[in-house]
Design a protein that fits this description.
The protein has eleven helices and no strands. With 271 residues, it is mainly α. The protein starts with 10 loop residues before the first helix and ends in a 7-residue tail after the last helix.
């Protein structure tokens, strides 16, 4: 959804809520996205993001809050991925592709049968940050705080397993449950971020700020903080672009993040 210029002053309230919501998502996506980049799990994020549309359909069919429906489906997919990780009959990339596109297609088909429900599909695919309500802000910031708390719990073992999986396993630092918790945190983040950038762009908000922060960060913690800052700047810049050029808000945020990433290439590398 684009932000139209010349709108009534009441639109300022929408912009404030949109900015607050976007900053909440950026705060969570930054640190979590660092692990997605480090562990090369972008396709895992894509898989759960695509599956979230099925959660929207499930919520509508069962009369549930859409955030609850999305969370239920993304958590289910996350647990399924964790359970199937050890099997060898199907390659991991093939399995992810099947789950991602299968869940997305089932969701689109299910939505097509909901003739009695008026649904703005584009808002779920590409986000509708201007439609964020006060209740959504509580969901975003409350869920975001829970995700950050969970990430803080698994930070050290997850970081150890990311740097040197074999050594971490030998020292007992890489408990198997840390990966399960991590994919559950990704699932939760996707559920809270869907309204901001949409199911097709969520992974971009996870990986682009983290990739932009990676080049000049001195430590993993510094990179996590920098990724959150880059994400926050992308949200502010994307909303400004949407105001000035009357462009869709979700894609504008991703374009702003991409511009920051390109700019980061000019910085000296520290790693």
């Amino acid at each position: 959804m684009a932000i139209r210029t010349g709108a009534p002053a009441m639109l300022d309230d929408f912009l404030v809520r949109a900015l607050v919501a976007g900053l909440g998502v950026a705060m969570v996506a930054g640190p979590l996205g660092c692990f997605v980049v480090w562990r090369r799990m972008a396709y895992v994020g894509d898989t759960m993001a695509h599956a979230s549309l099925l959660g929207v359909a499930l919520g509508l069919i069962l009369g549930l809050d859409l955030g609850v429906g999305v969370l239920a489906v993304t958590v289910t997919v996350a647990l399924l991925l964790a359970a199937l990780q050890g099997q060898r009959q199907i390659g991991s990339d093939t399995l992810l592709g099947i789950l991602a596109h299968g869940a997305l297609s089932i969701g689109l088909v299910a939505v097509a049968f909901l003739e009695s429900v008026r649904l703005d599909l584009m808002a779920y695919l590409f986000g509708d940050v201007l439609a964020v309500s006060t209740g959504d802000l509580l969901w975003i910031w409350g869920g975001g705080a829970a995700v950050l708390a969970g990430l803080a719990v698994v930070w050290r073992p997850l970081l150890a397993a990311t740097v040197d999986p074999d050594l971490a396993l030998a020292e007992g630092a890489a408990a198997p449950w840390t990966r399960v918790v991590f994919v559950l945190l990704i699932a939760t983040t996707i559920a809270i971020a869907m309204k901001i950038v949409g199911v097709l762009l969520i992974t971009a908000l996870l990986i682009i700020p983290a990739a932009a922060a990676r080049r000049s960060a001195r430590s993993p913690e510094a990179m996590a903080l920098a990724a959150s800052v880059v994400g926050a700047l992308a949200v502010a810049g994307g909303l400004a672009l949407s105001v000035g050029a009357d462009t869709p808000s979700g894609p504008s945020i991703v374009v702003a993040a991409l511009a920051l990433f390109v700019g980061s290439l000019a910085l000296p590398s520290r790693g």
